[in-house]
Amino acid sequence: MKILQTSGVPIYRQIAAAFQEDILSGKMKEGDYLPSIRSLAADLKVSVITTMKAYETLEEEGLVTAVQGKGFVVNARNSDMVMEQYRREIEKNLSVAVKKAKTAGITKTELKETIDVFWNEETEE
After folding, report:
1. Is 70 exceeded by the pLDDT of residue 124?
2. CB-based contact 47:7 (threshold 8 Å)
3. Is 81 helix (H, G, I), strand (E, B) or coil?
4. CB-based contacts of 101: which residues, under 8 Å, 6+ apart?
5. What is the DSSP letter of 67?
6. Are the beta carbons of 63 and 75 closer than 8 angstroms?
7. Which of 3, 34, 44, 46 would you call most buried, defined as having the most Cβ atoms within 10 angstroms of its Cβ?
8. Residue 66 belongs to what H/E stretch?
9. For residue 112, what pLDDT band results from cuts at 50, 70 and 90?
10. How far apart are the first and last CA of the chain?
């Protein structure tokens, strides 16, 4: 897991996003345990509070559940929930992209063409 101190994104959000991607993509499966809060904090050289906040964020999103004395376990993936998670993330990112495009004077057509380029690059790989 790569954490960027200078990214402008809070560290706990970077941690949560990395686990979210692993869970939604299927890398982490139902019943898998997240690393212990302390061990992850030590590995990433961040505070336990930061790691705990990331795990609580994942729990609020319904991706993991705290198990007393054992840590956090990945929940069953409901395909509707997974799709909704992805849609929210896509909408958030597109909202940012549209605002930046407008600020930069990029037209709607140019933005759509850019999306097409990225779409085609991903499907070719």
Report:
1. no
2. no
3. helix
4. 110, 111
5. E
6. yes
7. 34
8. strand 64-67
9. very high
10. 23
Q: What tokens does 120 get?
A: 């085609």
Contact 44, 51 (CB under 8 A): yes
Res 122: pLDDT: 64
Among 94, 36, 90, 30, residue whose Cα is nearest residue 64? 30
**pLDDT tens-place string over residues 39-80:** 999 999 999 999 999 999 999 988 899 999 999 999 887 667
Rounded to two decimals, what is the model's pTM?
Answer: 0.67
State both tokens at 57: 């964020």
Q: For residues 66 and 59, what is the distance between their CA atoms, to the nearest angstrom?
A: 7
Contact 70, 28 (CB under 8 A): no
Q: Give the tokens for residue 119.
A: 């779409």
* Helical ranges in the chain per DSSP H: 11-25, 37-44, 48-60, 79-104, 108-124
64 φ/ψ angles, rounded to the nearest 5 degrees: -135, 165
Q: How far apart (Å, rounded) are the C-alpha atoms in residues 112 and 16?
A: 30
